[in-house]
């Protein structure tokens, strides 16, 4: 199940969720980096991920603001972003912020993997 070393970054301020998703994605063959601080997403200069899994409600910064900024930067505008949130009624605002897809927590890992495979060619 080699995903050709596709890189996925997880940005969520819930360490339990980060750990669970990280374990699953590594098992599936992805290279995973993670942060519990949304503002560090912009520190990924050389190691750009093939996909970003971004929580909307993070301490310090709203994931939608992070997504908007990423989509405006030349170096990061083509990185697919899946936004996740425990609140189902924010899907429209996530898409409006530039997210490529949305998942409401709790979600099935199979659903996450399906969305990733659609957004990351060759995975």
Automatic annotation (TrEMBL):
Domain Response regulatory, chain residue ranges per copy: 7-120
Signal peptide span: none
Name assigned to this protein: Response regulatory domain-containing protein
Keyword field contains Phosphoprotein: yes
Residues modified to 4-aspartylphosphate: 55
InterPro entries: Bact_response_regulator, CheY-like_superfamily, Sig_transdc_resp-reg_receiver
Matching Gene3D superfamilies: 3.40.50.2300
Matches recorded under Pfam families: Response_reg
């Amino acid at each position: 199940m080699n995903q050709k070393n596709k890189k996925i970054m997880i940005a969520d301020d819930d360490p339990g969720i980060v750990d669970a998703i990280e374990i699953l994605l590594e098992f599936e063959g992805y290279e995973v980096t993670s942060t519990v601080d949304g503002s560090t997403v912009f520190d990924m200069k050389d190691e750009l991920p093939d996909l970003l899994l971004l929580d909307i409600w993070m301490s310090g910064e709203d994931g939608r603001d992070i997504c908007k900024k990423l989509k405006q930067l030349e170096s990061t505008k083509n990185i697919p972003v899946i936004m996740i949130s425990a609140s189902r009624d924010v899907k429209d605002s996530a898409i409006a912020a530039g997210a490529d897809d949305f998942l409401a927590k709790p979600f099935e890992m199979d659903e996450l993997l399906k969305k990733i495979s659609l957004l990351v060619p060759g995975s």
